Amino acid sequence: MTYSLDQDARAILLPAFDNLNFAHVVEPFLQNGGCSVLIGETRAEYVSRAMSNERLAAETPALFQAFVEKLKACCPDLIVAVDQEMGGIRRLQGLVPALPELADANKLTDDALAERCFLTAQAARRLGVSMFLAPIADVVDGQNPWLRNRTMGPDAQTVSRLVSAYVKGVQRAGITAVTKHFPGFNDLDADPALVDVSLQTAPDRILANALPFAAAIAAGTKAIMTGPAPVVALDGTNAASTSATVIALLRGQFGFDGLIVSDDLDAPATMRGNSLLETAVASLTAGADLLLVAGGPHIEALCDGVVAAVRRGTLSAGRLADAAARVRKNAAGH
């Protein structure tokens, strides 16, 4: 099947929404080529690492499932993503069996842990979810307010074991695991979602701490998310999600040939003073396939801007088409 530039420009976007009241915004997007949504959480829920009492009281599995089915009426092959981290943010709290707490996960065998992850993912699949933006593979051995209470430990070997079991378990249930945030952010002074901050870690330490990403790839992770801030040892100018150098490392030395998902392109440490459109074009050009952005009415203008960038020659039509094809392949379950 041949797709238009307009359809490709929509296929590569993953718009995020913090409630279940966005069908009117996203339906035209899906009807015109979009094939992904992130059903996310509010900033307060993100910061607290827990869903609000109001959400827990209002949302039921039946309500969530019915909403997803409404979206799939517009796009049957729809990527429905959520944050479902082990030890961190769990968007499906109260809707599916809980993932084990880290203390419990560390006591389980690899097979038992994978089974627990499978049961959570199996229930999520019944709700219509097809992608977990997890596991977090960052090994944090310094400070990192952005990932506080979200990571799985300061030891690369331990994190590798947990990441591998998570990937195997959730993907056995038909959920795509998006291992994040490559190449790993062990020590950040501030939250890149709030300020422009960079990772200053030495290259040998970065590679040593990236062991969990190699473990995830060996376990078959279908997707990897790049990070939201520059990694100075690799590329001091561009955030990992807009860096051709970082993505070349992932494709080359790490041998990953699956779907590359950007982190939130709206983050100050990712935009670095550029517009959202400029950041999206830079991320695609660097080699990312699926771009995470805040959802809203501005999505249509962003899509039009991506098309205009191709027509101006700022963005390769082939690169856009390749990214869109990778996203559609995942949406179709391949």
TrEMBL record:
Q: Which GO terms describe its biological process?
A: carbohydrate metabolic process; peptidoglycan turnover
| Protein known as | Beta-hexosaminidase
SUPFAM superfamilies recorded? (Trans)glycosidases
In the record, the note on similarity to other proteins reads: Belongs to the glycosyl hydrolase 3 family.
Which InterPro entries did the record assign? GH, Glyco_hydro_3_N, Glyco_hydro_3_N_sf, NagZ_Beta-hexosaminidase
Q: Where is the Glycoside hydrolase family 3 N-terminal domain?
A: 69-328
Signal peptide feature range: none
> Which GO MF terms are attached to this record?
hydrolase activity, hydrolyzing O-glycosyl compounds
**Keyword annotations of the record:** Glycosidase, Hydrolase
